[in-house]
Amino acid sequence: SAITTVMAAAARFFVRGAQSKLALAGVGPGTQSSFGAALLKLSPGCGSRTNAQRRYAAHFTFQPDPVPTQYGPTQKMNLFQSITSALDNTLASDPTAVIFGEDVAFGGVFRCTVGLRDKYGKDRVFNTPLCEQGIVGFGIGVAVAGAKAIAEIQFADYIFPAFDQIVNEAAKYRYRSGNLFDCGNLTIRAPWGCVGHGSLYHSQSPEAFFAHCPGIKVVIPRGPLQAKGLLLSCIADQNPCIFFEPKILYRAAVEQVPVEPYNIPLSQAEVLQEGSDVTLVAWGTQIHVMREVASMAQEKLGVSCEVIDLQTILPWDIETVCKSVVKTGRLLISHEAPVTGGFAAEISSTVQEECFLNLEAPISRVCGYDTPFPHIFEPFYIPDKWKCFDAIKRMINY
Amino acid sequence: MAAVRSVNKMFGVCFRAARQTAGLTGVRLPGHRAFRVGAVQRQQPFDSSLEKPQFPGASAEFVDQLEFIQPNVISGIPVYRVMDRQGNIINPSQDPQLSKETVLNFYQKMTLLNTMDRILYESQRQGRISFYMTNYGEEGTHIGSAAALDPNDLVFGQYREAGVLMYRGFPLDLFMAQCYANADDLGKGRQMPVHYGSRDLNFVTISSPLATQIPQAAGAAYAVKRENMNRAVICYFGEGAASEGDAHAGFNFSATLECPLIFFCRNNGYAISTPTNEQYRGDGIAARGPGYGMLSIRVDGNDVFAVYNATKEARRRAVAENQPFLIEAMTYRIGHHSTSDDSSAYRSVDEVNYWDKQDHPISRLRHYMMARGWWSEDDERSWRKQSRKTVMEAFERAEKRLKPNPELLFTDVYHEMTPHLDKQRESLWRHVQQYKEHYPLDLYDK
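Above: the input entities. Below: the structure tokens describing the complete assembly.
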């Protein structure tokens, strides 16, 4: 993991005050009085930002869910706070539960574990050495020994050293032992998806690699309310689960979230809005893009869209998606991950098998290109609302 | 000079470990564990007026001579043993003085394993089972270490530790059932032969990928530590598997997170065809321990008492002090890697015969027993006959048994049956109904 880029990526999410001590020495990040800031001020072009220097605005607007009434009192929480709340509930209710990974002790690079070590103890919330294969292997062992294991991988982009442990071990533990042993107590969490400047190694959406692995579950929430309920379900689930957290939503997504624990069921897709002409399927951040696309389609084309949040990638809710496509006859699936072999391919293939005669147009996939995730070209790379809108237009006119 | 000093210092750690055998330092208070959580040296405030290094990463002394530390593979870490190759005790204080009953049990378990190996190896040659791996020459490592553990200690193995399971009482019928993948197999017929597992005997099911069990053992030991129930975890692996990244991960995690864990490396000279001089360039596996901050020892794996003593002490201290121990048991793989290997392609028959005839854990223990009048030629003959008979009877029973119901292809993927798997199961069933003459249904349980 490149330390400097982690710091850069995480800087957006850190409270600025923490850096002020270093300013006195004139070195380090510092504040306004730092050497670096002084130098910048000398540069002629520095006063106003020209067009070329403007950082691109986010490609979506987070759309909060309505306040839930069935789970008790709620509190305003952003995504990372809702994760902390879920972890807090878990550590409180299950004395065996432990949370571990790189940098989780001080609160985590995305602040998901803030306060937990002080509250529950150093033996329950602890740092591990910098080794993803070790983190997941260790987590499997904790789970096999009967304790709840919540392993954090710092970025989903760094999950690959643990791929063998996940695919060859965690996923197959129960099956290969004839149910003598299992690691259902294991949940792996990782920040996921584009963040505006993450580039190759801080933006990936690797769910497709894991969708191909029978024995694990893969879950991706669209906001704080879903995240807490889904994470608690993953932790309670008696199978090893991977929970990807859209990092761009950690601060941007704010909702009223129940303080008490609650579960949102796995393998159940959610129909966010009903429609009659096109089914739109997505997960994570892309749901908010799709909701906006649905409004655009209604406004500009008079097209009524049904928006479905898949939520669980594996095992996925085939029934809900097919039921929708039978009704609308058109399907658009969108994800940031590269299109070839991306999860849209699996959905597309299954839907055409089940709903062939209902289809009015070929199934459309609006996804990332088959390139590594680029840095400066991100605005062109991502499956934004215009690409999705255009795909709907073509489907309607097919 | 400085290099020699630092080398000696490094080995000093190991010498000290070797000398700390039966009950010395380390008082164990019943029910109270030395729970050193996060007991990393708290950094003193940095002080540049001191001539001592202030780096957070290491706090050794400064030195002003340029000298690289010699890895010193020539003399290396010494090999601890209790008996010579003829089974005579060298230093009486090291004789664990086990009872006749215990020692006879060691011997019978080692020879029963050997007999089972011979019969199952042959059965693969005859096409009765698909695959097999023997344990020839390494029986001492299994029995000696298994005997030193508590039955509740959790065992993670690689694939050449069947003797551990046998010592704990896994019945011949279940060994055979797994190899035959018949309906009695606890694993429900899903894995290749020798991938044993037993929940009751605390032996985690074997998996083929190498070294994956090493960080898992560290995690299990951590959970076991938190339970505080006087349990340890042992993790077996070969010197080849120790090259995997997972081994490095497991060693580092167990030391950093202070886990009550025994790492037991069977260094048997070969990883399939790869000899140790192509596997590593340092002084074996034991020399890596100090690099992780781990107490380490090298033992004669063909000396069942040496293995027993080292494992016993490592277990006692691992639990009392919450730290991992590394035991490298030197031995020799007398058999081929597996039934898919013919080791004459890469080593001489003379080399194999040396170990079989002149340095074998079974014959060493037999000499020890005979010297005490605990075993005679008659005992040997009748035991061989009896063990062969029991193995053959289990073998015949296993061979006759049907295979598990093919429905078991689809269960245990998840804790619960999922709709998509249920659909696939139904589609297979429908297909097999239609094309039943092409499927060997008569071999399987209904």
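Note for the figure: Residues 1-41 of chain B have pLDDT under 50 and may be disordered.
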